[in-house]
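Reviewers of the previous submission asked for a worked example of the structure-prediction workflow described in the proposal, so we include one complete record here. The input consisted solely of the amino acid sequence. No template or homolog information was supplied to the procedure at any stage.
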Amino acid sequence: MSSWVQALKTADLKPGTMVNVKLNGQNILIAQVNEQYFALLNDCPHLGCLLHRGKLQDYELTCPCHDWIFDIRTGEFVTAPEITIPTYPVRIEAGQIFVNLGGI
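From that input alone, the workflow returned the following structure tokens.
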């Protein structure tokens, strides 16, 4: 069952940046890279650090706590792809970013 939730305006997210939004009680990271939008759970699987406080370079997101690096397209930890962060589909409609939380 899909669960599309309005997150924020596209104008509120500049290229190469990321923000935390609270959607259905969850911290969701939304990033814009190369005119694409991505949404991930905003908690590092290592110790739960908020990832939006880290560094974003191209599609790589570095955790601010222990420098774990994740690919925002897949949610995979780059040195151990079996460790992942949940990712969510994103759609843009009328200047708004919507995230499909899939029931969470």
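Residues 43 and 49 are 5 Å apart (CA to CA). We consider this example representative of the routine output the project will generate in years two and three.
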